Each structure stands twice: as C-alpha cells, then as structure tokens.
Amino acid sequence: MSEPTTAAAMPTARVAGCPFDPPEDLARLREDQPIAPMAYPDGHLGWLATSHALVRAVLADPRFSHRADLTHAPLGGTRMGEPRPAPPGIFTAMDPPEHTRYRHLLTGQFTVRRMRRLTGRIQEITAEHLDAMERHGPPVDLVEAFALPIPGLVICELLGVPTGERARFQDDMSKLLSLEVSPEEKIAAFTTLTEFMHALVLAKRADPADDLLSDLVNGTDLTDEELTNISGILMGAGFETTANMLALGAFALMSHPGQLAALQADRGLTDRAVEELLRYLSIVPGTVRAALEDVELGGRLVRAGQSVTVSIPAANRDPEHFADPDTLDLHRSAAGHVAFGHGIHQCLGQQLARVEMQVGIPALFARFPTLRLAVPPEEVPLRTDMMIYGVHRLPVTWDVAQDE
Ligand code: HEM
C-alpha cells in the first residue's frame, strides 16, 4: 500500500466534437489507477475513484462520510466559503443518524398516490409545452421551450409553489450551480432563494394545501429553518438535473438516428432507453466523501480525513461492468448504473426524474417526428462551466405539415 506522491486535478474537460463522452483522461485513470491521488482546488491532497466497483464500494461504506465540514470540494467554485457543519435540514451533507431521520421523513412523502398524481400533471405540463412549441413553429431553443420549464413546474407542483413564481427562482438556481459565478453572487442568489422558501413555509403553515411542503410543515416537528433548507435542497437537486437530462438526452438521440428510430418504433423501449441515457450521459460529474478512519481501497491507503471523489461518468463507462460502454444502446440493460449515486445518499427524487424522462422524451419525438438540430452539432454550447453537465441551448427545427 502506498500514499500519494504526485496528484493531478480531476479531469473534467470534454473533448471537442464528442459532447457525450467523459474526458479521455478518466478512462486512462480507470485503466491504470482506479484509485488515484488527486489535487483538490483548495490544496487538499486526496483521491479520485474511477472504476465502477470502487465507486460503489466508497458510496456504500459507512467509513466514508458526506459531512460538509469534513469533505473537500472536488471542483472549483462549488463551495461558498470554508467547510463548516451543515445547517439544520441540509441532510445531503450529513451522516447517520441525522441523515437517516430527515431521509425517513422525506421518503414517506414520495408516496405512490402523490407520484401517481404527479405523473398525470407531468403528462399535462409536457403536452402544454409541446402545444406551445407547435404554435411557435421552428426553430426553437429546446432548453427554454421544453427541458427547463417542465422540471421547474414539476418541482413547483411537488412543493406547492405557485407556478407563476418559477421564473423568480430559475436564475438564482443557475447561479448557484455555476462554476464561474463569484462567491458573492452565489451568496446573494442563495439569500434570495432562502427568503423565498422561508416565505413559502410560512404560507403553508398559515394555509396548508395538498402538497409535499404542506404535509412536512404540518405533519412533522421540523422547524421553519429546517423546512426552508429542505425545500431549497429539493428545488436545487431536482431542477437542473432533470432539465439537463431532457435536453442532453434529446441531443444524444438526434445524434444517434438509428437509436432514435428504434425508440420511435417501439414505445415499449422507453424505460430501458431512459436508464441507458442516464448511464451514457452521466450528467453529474461526481460526488465526494471523507474517510473517517484509515481505509484500504483498491490497494491504496486512504488516510483518515482524506477526501475521495468518485467519478460517476467513469464508473458508468467501465468496461468491467458494461459491455461496449461507449456505445449508446437503448436495448441494453443499464442496471447497476450510478447516475443517481449509490448507498444511503442515493437520489431521493429518482422515481420522479424517471417519470419526467419517460413521459417527456417519447412525447417530444412523437409530436415532432422530424425533430433535428437547427445548427451544426459543434455549435451547441456545452455546460462545461457548470456543476451539472448538459447544454446551455439546443436550437432545434422540424418539418411543418403543409395543410393547404
Ligand atoms: C441525490 C442525481 C433528480 C433530489 C442525488 C445523487 C445523484 C443524483 C448522483 C447522489 C449525490 C451524492 O451521493 O452525493 C440526479 C439526477 C437526476 C436527479 C441525474 C435527474 C435525472 C432529482 C430530483 C429530485 C432529486 C427530481 C427531487 C425532487 C435529490 C436529493 C438527493 C439527491 C434530495 C440527496 C439525497 C441524500 O443525500 O440522501 N441525485 N438526481 N434528484 N437527489 Fe437527485
């Protein structure tokens, strides 16, 4: 076992012309050093795990913590200041037993009844946006017309945010997820969002409705501060992630016409297609844990206190787990992919995200069977500057039927 001697930063650059493939350096690392020394932007010397087996091992191991005051941020610009303990309610950055308590309260809210009702609303919201696209006519920016508003409205629906308020939080949310916005701007955006969510919590206490936030406000002993922070997490975690899967997913399908034709010919392929797109595109670059004690991992010694970043794109393209991993194959079983993470912090909203994609993607290509890019693929602006990968804009066009 050896400790790190040299370390490089986490490879994130996508290669021009291959918008769907992770950086080549990740594949090289997975082959040569699936657990490799990594230099963190704050100067910390930690590790990067790239194989499917090691990524899952780290995420399932209670000796690795997700506490905000112990982990070092793997990408620049992801933190608003020094590491410090998570504020009340920010369960994503807590370990058991605190994490377990919040998670239990929230899992109880994602009921079959609520999911079923949301599915109906997702179908309606999707149809409304496709109608609007049709009325507008080509070309449109698919991000603005489809991919961003649908998950935004679904989160509003889930939490009980008046839908007219969506635009108010969309910009602030983007700033929080940007790698290039200054810490001051982030703090300002965070403050505005927190004030918005706090006002919403107070409104739900005064006038409860049939939504997740009202149930949490009135059915649990969570404080206003906890409720405000939990709402902020759900907004943040559920909005841009799904939006980017819808947009990048559509881009990937338009770039693989054979796969798109297979999906259009057989709606029964939808569930597999969604899992494969999640695996193939891996829009979340990774997540980080800190060792609570010395841990031997893949033949290396991770010292107590060191951070280990796990690369989700590298794990999801690991040939040891997925045959021919760099091929988009909607017929394959992508079971075991880690696009939603793994272990106790595995995505809380994954069923909701799946429904949004299972409804949205086939409906888009059924309504516009000739949908295609309106610009050359290399002109599509990629989100290489954001914590969640995807596209900033996706100009698309389609053939309009001539009636007369
Ligand atoms: C956690 C991905 C949609 C809420 C996660 C994690 C990943 C992820 C990778 C694990 C993070 C970690 O271990 O550090 C995605 C993707 C989505 C999506 C790719 C869309 C395609 C959603 C939606 C919601 C949501 C729609 C909510 C409505 C959460 C929450 C957590 C989480 C609350 C933290 C869970 C915990 O710490 O216990 N997500 N997510 N996500 N996600 Fe998602």
Summarize the structure.
This protein has 404 residues and is an alpha+beta fold. The chain has helices at 24-32, 52-60, 98-107, 112-136, 142-147, 149-159, 166-177, 183-206, 212-219, 224-255, 257-265, 270-281, 312-316, 350-367, and strands at 35-39, 45-49, 64-65, 140-141, 286-291, 295-297, 300-302, 307-311, 372-373, 395-397. The site of protoporphyrin IX containing FE has 22 residues, from helix 10 and helix 14.
Describe the structure.
The chain is α+β, with helices and mostly antiparallel strands and 404 residues long. 47% of the residues lie in helices and 9% in strands. The chain contains 14 helices and ten strands. It has helices at residues 24-32, 52-60, 98-107, 112-136, 142-147, 149-159, 166-177, 183-206, 212-219, 224-255, 257-265, 270-281, 312-316, 350-367; strands spanning 35-39, 45-49, 64-65, 140-141, 286-291, 295-297, 300-302, 307-311, 372-373, 395-397. The strands form three sheets. It has a five-stranded mixed beta sheet with strand order 1-2-8-5-3, sandwiched between helices. Strands 4-10-9 form a three-stranded antiparallel beta sheet. A two-stranded antiparallel ribbon has the order 6-7. Helix 6 runs antiparallel to helix 10 (224-255). The radius of gyration is 21 Å and the shape is globular. The model has no long low-confidence stretch (mean pLDDT 91). The structure holds protoporphyrin IX containing FE. It is an enzyme of class 1 (oxidoreductase). Belongs to the cytochrome P450 family. This is Cytochrome P450. One of its GO terms (molecular function) is oxidoreductase activity.
